[in-house]
Amino acid sequence: MRESKKIVILGAGIGGLRVALKLEKKITPNLCQIILIDENNYHQYLYRIHEICSLDYDEDDIIVPIRKLIDGKNIEFRMIKVENIDPKRRVVETSQGELKFDILVIALGSHTEFYGIEGVREYSLVLNSFDSAKRMKCAIEDLFMTLKGKGQSPKIVICGGGFTGIELAGEFIDWFPVLFERYGFGKPEKLATLVEAMPSILPNWDPELVKRAQKVLTSRGIELILGNPVSRVSKDCIELRSGRKLESDLTIWTGGVTCDPACGNVFDIRSRRICIDDYCRALGFDDIYVVGDSSCAIDAVTGKPLPPSAHIATEQADVVSHNIHASLTGSEMEQYIGNRIGEIVTIGETDAIGNLWGIKVTGSLAKFIKRLIHVLYIRSIGG
Asked: Rounded distance, CA 136 to CA 119, Å?
């Protein structure tokens, strides 16, 4: 009788959860044990967490309990924190001790990259989780309340003009005018400032779409400072490489991501993520797979690393679940071909820009498509 394999999946995000659900459908319980690990007991729609910083939001639109998604399935969930991965000993070190594995799936997502810039870690808020988004919303509301009646408008600066920074600024253009009026600041000339190191926001995006996004943001009160990297952050000031200084009551860092610290220095790293082979395995390891933002997937057309995105995580999860099943049953494995379908970036409640399969979409149509994608994703996980 074949010995049951222990499959450990680190992370219950888009990639990790999908691997667990897909694999559970393929494999009989006597063939393997599936253990899903996450430090939270809920699954986060990370592509929507910026919506917390808005007029109002429904928590059910941002998170869903993991138990609800795996109820009745042969998946064991453990709410523990991953501290280190030791491939040689084939163990994961966690907040509750060591956990051995036969097959490992690393789907820990990404963490904020501070690039060693002085003061950024200490004096900035980040937007990388449900909890961090709630903290940010509370901090913003507290700031408006504190400055009420003092004759000075809140100065809020977003550092980073990629997906996260632009979608967050988009929420601000709807939310902040309400806050300015509620706390007696009157109609502001400027809602917030966004700083981007590159010459334009959304680097490597279609110039026409970028131009539209910049026009929407600036016309609705977001000051853009482009081509001027941050060199230092203090409690109430941001220094730029040009020497310019920006006063800031609240600094938000959305400048980049890196893989989870638990990955340590044992894997080959490119673009601050784990390099994978054609089958989504960590280079040099036959039984360790990497999915989603933890992986450095290469674009089959350009040969460059693909940006972290939800659709890449889902595609990789499908390949990994197939390949784990193939490795257990002796069937043929499937190669992963990096393919950038495209992305949609929302800009507030009613606007968005996107490029899907080379087709540009904007405005209400782009917004509708993104909402439709979310609904389809919820259905795919049984939420």
From this structure: 18
In this prediction, the residues of the chain whose per-residue pLDDT falls under 70 are 1-3, 383
CATH of 5-112+257-340, one of 3.40.50.2020, 3.40.50.2000, 3.50.50.100, 3.40.50.12160: 3.50.50.100
Greatest Cα pair distance in the chain: 77
pLDDT tens digits for 79-96? 999 999 999 999 999 999
Full DSSP string of 197-219: SSSSSSTTS-HHHHHHHHHHHHH
Q: How far apart are the first and last CA of the chain?
A: 36
Provide the b/e sequence for 358-376 (b: ≥16 CB within 10 Å): eeebbeeebbeebeeeeee
CB burial of 86-112 (b: ≥16 within 10 Å; e: otherwise) equals: ebeebbbbbeeeebebbbbbbbbbbbb
Q: How far apart are CA 94 and CA 194, in angstroms?
A: 38
Query: Which tokens sit at 91?
Result: 């163990």
**120-253 carries CATH number 3.50.50.60:** yes
| Residue partners of 122: CB distance under 8 A and separation at least 6 | 233
Pick from 52, 13, 191: which is nearest to 135 by CA?
A: 52
How many other C-beta atoms are found inside a 10 Å radius of the C-beta of residue 64?
A: 19
Q: What pLDDT score was predicted for residue 34?
A: 96
Q: What is the pTM of this model?
A: 0.93
* Domain residue spans of the chain: 5-112+257-340, 120-253
How many C-alpha atoms does 339 have within 13 Å on its Cβ side?
10
Running DSSP on this structure, what letter comes out for residue 3? P
> What per-residue confidence (pLDDT) applies to 1?
41
Residue with tokens 């990790």: 16
Q: CA–CA separation, 367 vs 25, rounded Å?
A: 33
Identical fold, 5-112+257-340 and 120-253: yes
